[in-house]
Amino acid sequence: MTDCANVAATLMEHLVDDPAHGYTQAGGRWGSGGYEVVTVDGTGYSVALGDRDCSSAVIDCWRTALDHTDYAGALDAATYTGDMRSVFVASGLFEWHPM
Predict the structure, then answer these.
(1) Taking residues 52-75, what's their average pLDDT?
(2) How far is CA 4 from CA 34, 42, 54, 65, 97, in A?
(3) Diameter of the chain by CA atoms?
(4) Using one digit for the tens of pLDDT, what is the confidence trace for 75-84?
(5) CB atoms within 10 A of CB 95
(6) Angle 10-16-18 (CA atoms, 0-180°, nearest 5)?
(7) What is the pLDDT of residue 25?
(8) CB pairs under 8 A, 24+ apart, for 35-44?
(9) Cα–Cα distance measured from residue 19 to residue 11, given in angstroms and rounded to the nearest whole number
(10) Is 62 helix (H, G, I), strand (E, B) or coil?
(11) Which of 11, 26, 52, 63 lies at a 20 to 30 A Cα distance from 38?
(12) Is 36 helix (H, G, I), strand (E, B) or coil?
């Protein structure tokens, strides 16, 4: 199986480095239309162009990294910082370790 953590991290790096993406907490925090393909280890991943906020960027990168795996859709219920932990942990892919 593809190293999904590497894919998610590479997609996040792309969002940070590419000027076609920015930061917003307003409408359009999941991208504003149009798509591009970002290639990671020879596989193309469809990424919405436009802005995100910190939680939507993390959620979006992980959702995209899980496409075409047995975990596709496992994070779809995550929508903002307040529900990320419960959804990510419930997927079975993540563990929560209190500080």
Answers:
(1) 95
(2) 24, 14, 19, 5, 20
(3) 40
(4) 999 999 999 9
(5) 7
(6) 95
(7) 87
(8) 38/10, 38/11, 38/14, 40/6, 40/7, 40/10, 40/11, 41/2, 41/3, 41/6, 41/7, 43/2, 43/7
(9) 14
(10) helix
(11) 26
(12) strand
